[in-house]
Amino acid sequence: MKRKIIAFLAGIALITSMPSCTDLDENVYDKLPADQFGNTDVEVKALMGTTYNTLKTYWNEWFLQLSENGGSMAVTPTRRGGDWYDGGQYRELYMHAWTAQTQQIRGAWTAASTAIGTCNATISVLENSTLLTDAEKKVNVAAMRGVRAFWYYVMMDNWGNIPLVLSNQDRDLPAVKPRQEVFEWLVKEVTEIAADCPDASDANYGKFTKGAAYTLLAKLYLNAEAWGVSVSGNACQLCIDACDKLFALGYYELAADWKDNFSYENPRPKEAILTACYSDQDTDDYYRLRIMNRTLHYADNQSDGASYSAWNGIAAQPDYVKLFDPKDPRYAATFRTGQRYSLATGEVLMTGHAAPLNYTVDISFIEGTERDGTPWGDVVQEAGARCQKWPYASNLSDAMNNHFHIFRLADVKLMKAEALLRSGGSTAEATALVNEVRARAYGSPANNYTAVTLETIALERKFELAWEAWSRQDDIRFGTFAAGAWTASNCPRKADAYLKLYPISQDAWQTNPKLTQNPGYPAF
Question: Which residue among 209, 306, 324, 506 sits deepest, i.e. has the most Cβ atoms within 10 Å of its Cβ?
């Protein structure tokens, strides 16, 4: 007999609770079968908290790499001696030479499909609950369907043609559905649940609210043309309408201080729309936020006076950094550059090769270190601007406490501005929206635009949203997907149109032979 919970939904039979900002999971329930959950109010809340915690797997590792390395924002170079070579997977991401065996693609597929399985299990429990009132059931199920829709949007964006499984009772292994069909289901699903989702409010911070639903709709419509899907109506106008519905909620506002969106003190700004609520109490590797591990030099914890470990990996693509006005406060708050000093002694920090730990924007290969028959080689330990956007606390030892806002208001304002220009709408209104974001960043309107263009908006999105996993999607939408932002590397990027979809991983197919590979890649 085929397994009741299919491998595509691996991991949902055992539901565990982890720290969450929704206060839904105060007790820990370890390794309890999902069908035994939901008999008490605490258990229902714990199950929902576990579902919200799937959002922590979005940015933490896999999708950060797929978006920023596969886009024009970041690169994970091979460090001198071979650190971060890892079989060439990061070279593959930057050069658009990935395959069905690329580890980051496999990890991302697994994270998303497992999250969907968790959502399906939670929805099943809630729908069959005799504990909840009809009103409670409606709002809670809508929120869980919203989280599931988010994950399907992520999968459709990255892979296009994907399985669409809406019940944890399905016994058959699923085949893929065309991107058009998944898109139509998503629009219908999110439109249907929007009114029933929790209200946008301080009390519902961290939940999938009406604001999250409208933002997800706006994302769907804004990217429809780039995805090659047809829409009933004008996609850009529908994006504008979704943005306006979010504004009409009357709750959201730009944080007065841009840095409040990234602080480890988590002031819960009203700019936040959908949040992955990381905690320094997180213990699972897949749910802990540890960007400092992945970006900072091995010795850089000393500059923060902290005890965390760092692995000297991901850095910004040099040409991306050079787009910034150094006077833009976002520049220094986004990138860690320059000489690092010990906070305790003031001494110059050094690399493992006796060079000053002086982060350079430029990244150059060491002559004679070429790999895989390409120009890709090793770089010195200090090469590359590092991620500074989420500050590192002086008491940081392992898991970070900073929340990550998957959706935030600045993005929505920039989306509406873009949709206005793409649809021939008001340039004045689009300019005003972009200038709200820009003036907040600079602290005054002195650097505002007179009139924005699509190129202007693409740049402002880079300034505002660096490291936030939008680069690949934006590059595809603005027609710059093949360009990259590390011209000095001389590493060519493949530009074939089929690369706008990632391949389905080999491991996923071995688990589910009904999966068919995306066009352009070798068939399974």
Answer: 209
CATH assignment, 7-280+405-511 = 1.25.40.390
First-last CA distance in the chain: 25
Pick the closest to residue 186 from 205, 211, 160 (CA basis).
160
Contact indicator for 306, 397 with CB cutoff of 8 Å: yes
Look up the pTM and report it.
0.94
Q: Which amino acid is at 204?
A: N
246 phi, psi to nearest 5 deg: -65, -45
Q: How many CA atoms lie within 13 A of 434 on its CB side?
A: 29
| pLDDT score of 35 | 54
CA distances to 4, 51, 132, 144, 286 from 169, in Å? 6, 18, 21, 17, 26
How many of the other CB atoms lie within 10 Å of CB of 291? 25
Residue for token pair 């149109």: 497
Which residues of the chain fall below pLDDT 50? 1-19, 23-32
At 329-358, the pLDDT tens digits run 999 999 999 999 999 999 999 999 999 999
CB 220 within 8 Å of CB 183: yes
Q: CB within 8 A of 342, min separation 6: which ones?
A: 302, 303, 349
